[in-house]
Write a structure and sequence with these properties.
2 copies of one chain form a homodimer.
Chain A: E1 8-10, E2 13-15, E3 21-22, E4 25-26, E5 31-32, E6 37-38, H1 42-59, H2 64-80, H3 82-93, H4 97-117, E7 127-129, E8 142-148, E9 152-155, H5 169-177, E10 181-184, H6 190-206, E11 214-217, H7 222-230, E12 236-240, H8 243-254, E13 262-265, E14 272-274, H9 276-295, E15 307-311, H10 314-329, H11 338-352, E16 358-362, E17 374-379, H12 380-385, E18 397-403, H13 405-414, E19 418-424, H14 434-441, E20 444-449, E21 488-494
Parallel strand pairs in A: 9-10, 9-12, 10-11, 12-13, 14-15, 14-19, 15-18, 17-18, 19-20
Antiparallel strand pairs in A: 1-2, 3-6, 4-5, 7-8, 8-21, 16-17
């Protein structure tokens, strides 16, 4: 691939009108990386959205088979350039090459999955009630179908530079739905974003998609994001990131003259309940699995298990010790960028300094942007009395809460919304915990038995969502085929002649 | 039925703690009707929501067949008491008996339709991806299903005292979904609301539903509605009414610490395009149909056609004269209540006083709360230059806009969101208007050919919704079976043993 240019890509036009620039930083060495990137100006943002709106009039009518070819061309282009993209992503994120290659596989799989999905009209949930002319009053012919909503703004996520960024799940599902996409690149990996954007633009050209079906804008400032959300042509927003940023975008979208939906996935603590039978049967395996799940990707996953509730006693103590050993034995990993690192260190310090919280085990020797992974423990009263302890610590930290049976249920009831909750138990003891299951059903988007919440399968049955503050819209998922529903809305044709109906709703 | 008591119904408990009272008024005579009704206090509102939340824990697990029996028992109870309910509704709304009996048929049909819908688990959109233990990494068993969202607040609509009020489509779809309902009665028909609420409560008792599955609160003040929307136990809101009120509820819901969805259907102007071929073929029939559609229910329908766009010339002049004759020959009807009447008279005056607008025909002799029905005409420039003319006039008024072919398309492009748009044309001329159809697809929830937008069929393929400001959520419908989706959200069970899964997601 050609060398990086650092400009905004307004359709295929390079643009850098503004004087504000920034650069990526190598988190391993904390040194700046070339080139400088141009922060988008308001007129560049306006042009990106205007091009997207113009493209919408064509793209919404593009045949599903042609949209599928576009998605597959993006996937093929990513496969072709995977080495260059992964190399730049590794520089910008300090994520290991194997992880980045795996994430690219996930990204291309998602693109091809949505291409397959729209190869059948099932995704349009077509409902036909034919005319009943003899009935009094007569019933007209009615045909309901889901159609594309309009231009979608997607925010790249820092922790998934590929699978939840420029060509990630939000972009793939919006393009599959028939919506042009304007991506706001995450400023921590602007070079990776540019490389992926060029692949998308090349695929758009190869498959004759309308200009403006895709644009990429850069920006570190909140203003760029807010301007995109507030732009009158924006019809919906996809976001993965922090609660604070997600809520700010939601508030901006809700207070527009014409409000629009914001699908913000803002992470969660992902509580895990470890039942006595499970501890008796396989405490070591759970302790090892927990340590792996917490530390995966230096703990920078939305589904990272941050609170573990167990029943106090010798079995739990032994479990905590085992898990602590895994933490102590692990090497510190480098975090994505300095902002994530300092937020993590602050949150960890606040948790460990809380009266009643002890550190059971932690990694040693962290330097630079490396994270000190930590497993802490506390009692149910302390946990219940400190709202801070229920908030997500984005990074490799987890907190064991010692409770009794009754406290376990009360604690579950007091939870806010989460992406996931997990129960480790034996099938034999599970019937005693029916009340716990029922409480957790109202709190989360995914309920896991004897597994770990990290590793979100991309498939039809996945739900990666959940009640606020896990997301701003618990009716939706950002992973799996159902993610396309976020960018579709129904229309009903009444009494239309066959010739004037879209092909997929004809007889 | 027993005589009216005028109290709030917090589950089956009558309550009137506050000192604020109000009464209904007979719109025909503008005289007050007995009894007085007790405005709900904040502690009564809190109790209604607390009871709903308690009920939710049971009701969400009630078998679909038992929920269906509950819905059918409500329908049976309404059938049994139809005479009393329609008599009171006629007093409170001045709607004719035949209309109210028809509306009751629609109401009971809706209840039975949702009972039928939940008799099959299809409404839960169940998706199962079974485990792939041999794959690397292994795929766990994943089962996604839609579940009830939580307690729902429903606002009764003034213009449909039955079908969009206490036991209307919002209530029926929320109860079918497994959500307890708290209805805020519309203060224009509190007695009708009480009678219907008593039927629901009796049905709940007969079918052993949990206490708190239904409550009714009264209130004229905005504070009652806002308190319901802001209550922490409220999970979603259904509303049919004005843009101002709907937007206020949406803003309150969006700015909660935990935002919730508001499904507000706020009406629209429902533009109708009359093409030259249609005028040549059947101008008189369209003029008659238009006059009937505009005047149906004294024009108090969200789908009432308020703007008619035609191409200027002799054919359009003749059409307008024919329609004007129908308006002049019609008798003035009494509107629902004084607030609707004065808002209508004000909006009509503003429209007819606009420079460039002429009255083509109107009813005469209106007195009291009777409406002067009016058909007005203007030119495309005047229409484009006056935003006011694009706003809904809730009542029996419509505006003919004379344009040429190009202006017709520009005018369509300039439209905001509407519930419906209609095209009258011949099948032969329709291909020339493909661009018009495509523009209208992006503006409305339902697109009608050679019909009238009033008379919203209740069925699977109906979409009664549309882009803002027609509604606050264009992804949804408030009429037809898809209305249930508003009160459901997904959850995914991962790796759960069969015995711990809800029955409908087992193998």
């Amino acid at each position: 691939m050609s060398s990086l240019h650092g400009q905004n890509l307004l359709a295929s036009n390079r643009s850098s009108q503004g004087s504000d620039t920034f650069h990526a930083t190598d988190p391993s060495t904390q040194t700046p990386l070339e080139p400088t990137f141009a922060e988008a100006t308001s007129s560049e943002i306006d042009l990106a959205m205007t091009l997207a709106e113009k493209a919408f009039w064509h793209y919404r009518k593009v045949e599903d088979s042609a949209k599928a070819a576009f998605l597959r061309a993006i996937a093929d282009g990513l496969d072709q350039h995977v080495e260059d993209i992964a190399a730049r992503a590794q520089l910008e994120t300090a994520l290991p090459a194997a992880r980045l290659h795996g994430e690219m596989g996930r990204t291309t799989n998602q693109l091809r999955m949505f291409a397959d999905l729209i190869s059948s009209p099932d995704y349009r949930d077509i409902r036909i009630d034919t005319a009943l002319p003899e009935r009094q009053p007569p019933r007209p012919d009615l045909r309901r179908v889901l159609i594309a909503m309009g231009p979608v703004v997607v925010f790249g996520a820092s922790n998934f530079p590929l699978a939840f960024s420029v060509a990630g799940g939000d972009t793939a599902s919006a393009l599959a739905a028939g919506c042009p996409v304007v991506v706001k690149a995450h400023p921590a990996h602007p070079g990776t974003s540019e490389l992926v954007a060029e692949v998308i633009l090349e695929a758009a050209q190869k498959t004759s998609m309308p200009a403006g079906v895709f644009s990429l804008v850069h920006g570190r400032s909140h203003e760029v994001g807010l301007a995109l959300v507030r732009h009158p042509h924006t019809a919906a927003v996809g976001f993965t990131g922090s609660l604070r940023a997600g809520r700010a975008l939601f508030d901006a979208a809700s207070s527009r003259p014409t409000p629009i939906p914001v699908y913000a996935e803002m992470g969660s603590t992902n509580p895990m309940f470890v039942l006595p039978g499970a501890l008796a049967e396989r405490a070591d395996a759970i302790a090892e699995g927990l340590a792996q799940s917490v530390n995966l990707g230096v703990g920078q996953f939305c589904t990272n298990p941050g609170v573990i509730i167990g029943q106090k006693g010798d079995a739990l103590d032994a479990f905590v010790n085992k898990a602590a050993n895994y933490f102590q034995a692990s090497d510190p990993g480098t975090m994505l960028y300095s902002g994530v690192h300092s937020a993590y260190q602050d949150a960890l310090k606040r948790a460990r300094d809380t009266a009643g919280v002890q550190v059971a085990g932690e990694t040693t020797g962290a330097s630079g942007l490396q994270a000190t992974a930590a497993i802490m423990r506390t009692d149910a009263q302390t946990f219940a009395a400190n709202d801070d302890l229920q908030e997500e610590i984005f990074g490799p930290a987890t907190l064991i809460v010692e409770s009794d049976l009754e406290q376990m249920l009360e604690l579950a009831k007091s939870l806010s919304g989460h992406l996931t909750a997990t129960i480790h138990g034996t099938e034999a003891e599970l019937p005693q915990y029916q009340a716990l299951i029922e409480v957790l059903e109202t709190k989360v988007g995914r309920l896991i038995f004897n597994g770990f919440p990290t590793g979100v399968e991309v498939c039809s049955a996945m739900n990666h969502g959940g009640p606020y503050p896990a997301t701003t819209d618990m009716r939706t998922t950002s992973v799996g085929t159902a993610a396309i529903e976020r960018f579709l809305r129904p229309i009903c044709y009444q009494g239309f002649p066959q010739t004037a109906l879209p092909a997929h709703v004809r007889d």
